[in-house]
Amino acid sequence: MHIERTARLFELTGKVILVTGGTRGLGLAMARAFALAGADLVISSRKVEACMAVARAIREETGARCIGVPCHVADWEACDALVAATYAEYGRVDVLVNNAGMSPPYEKLSAISRELFDKVIGVNLAGPFRLSALVGERMVAAGGGSIINISSTAATVPTASEVPYGAAKAGLHNLTAALAHTYAPKVRCNCIMPGPFLTDISRAWDMDAMNEMFASQIPLQRAGQAGEIVGAALYLASDASSYTNGAVLKVDGGMSYSPG
Fold this sequence. Notes:
With 260 residues, the chain is an alpha/beta fold. The protein has one domain (2-250): Rossmann fold. It has helices at residues 2-9, 25-36, 48-62, 76-90, 114-142, 163-182, 207-217, 230-237; strands spanning 16-20, 40-44, 66-68, 95-98, 145-150, 187-194, 197-198, 224-225, 248-251. Strand 4, helix 5 and strand 5 form a beta-alpha-beta unit.
């Protein structure tokens, strides 16, 4: 049947997927979807306990192979160790999802310390660069793969509260395009650009003020639910996106649209 043939395009059975920032929010939603689609997983975040707990939960829920490996992606030695542990366990990586991110609050721009600025750049840009360099070269040698970077609408429509974060995510867009050319034709690199999502991070929001913003600035007039990132992630991870390379896929309810 045509439906079955189409469904097979999104099949991930036998693929190994490494997800950073995979223990909560969008990263967790994507990881669960990958496992349900048949993939074997490496779940990574900074906290050992969270990695182990989420890996165990995914194994129990889906039956997929899944390990947890802690990594602070701003630390390149930790990135090297994460890649080494992944290849020691599975022997390969078919899909790398650079999802780990951070955007700490600050009072004003001049109050941002160099340490904080470097940390934001490290987690949101330098870490994805290092992991993509290590894994991408091995993907090329192995004959193929997919790198998925997770960006933010702050890359194109930054606000005053996310200046370093927006700059880092804009750099991630540039990195996506560069890697799409560097590793072609064997490896594809694409980017998902989410808008605001109702995850654990949103618990700190003033929801009355945010809902007013959603109504005025987002055509769909709401924030996304974590599960609504899954379709884009499955598309870019699977053979369904075999001719998609260097793309920035907006999943933002229309927020970043601007005419002209």
